[in-house]
Amino acid sequence: MFSPKTKAQQTQGEAVEKLPMAPGYKAQGWRSTLLQFLRYCVVGGLNTIVDIGILNILLLRFPTHNAQILTAYNAVAYSCGAISSFLLNKYWTFRHTQRTTRREVIRFAISIVLEILYSSAFIWLAGRALQPFISNVTLWGNASKLVAVVCGTLLSYSLMRFWTFANRSQS
Asked: Per the CB 3.0–4.6 Å rule, which of 43, 57, 100, 114 could disulfide with 88?
């Protein structure tokens, strides 16, 4: 008969028997991931409010219809939400309670740079595509930003979940 052993009781050469998964285990895993993604979206929504607010301040203060300048405004606006994004995602979305490590900060900084790059690419493409159809600078900038946010959400979540805040065992 099978008697379960703790890790301490298992020897290095002994194979660990796989026990069948309990019914609903996979469903609970998906549910947990979905809830985590929803928390990520709430944090992203808050950061997007800051992001779009800064973008609109820049567009109102320094109006432009130039896609390159809009891209620069986007980089500034996107950067403004980075600190709150880090803290909210670390402690609420991904439930990391341990002290912030240098590794997390470096990975987060790299993630933000990558996010700014692809967000800027999306906003530049959307800005170029929408420019002939929208003459109002603020509406044009916001429509371009909305396209960039929608396109970047899954990429950003994947970066945060599987790299920035990945457990050491996952990385």
From this structure: 43
Token digits for 12? 């290095």
In which domain, by residue range, is 148 found? 32-164
* Cα distance between residue 169 and residue 1, in whole Å: 32
Question: Does residue 10 sit within a domain?
Answer: no
Residue 47 lies in a domain: yes
Give pLDDT tens digits for 76-93. Answer: 998 888 878 888 888 888
Question: pLDDT tens digits, residue range 33-66?
Answer: 889 889 988 998 898 898 889 999 999 999 998 9
pTM beyond 0.70: the answer is no
Is residue 82 within 8 Å of residue 112, measured between CB atoms?
Answer: yes
Q: Is residue 1 part of a domain?
A: no
Phi/psi-derived region of residue 11, left when phi > 0, alpha when psi is between -120 and 50, beta in every other case? beta
CB 58 within 8 A of CB 76: yes
DSSP 10: S
* Number of alpha helices (DSSP H) and beta strands (DSSP E) in the chain: 5, 0
Calpha distance 44→79 (Å, rounded): 13
Domain count, the chain: 1
Say if 104 falls within a structural domain. yes
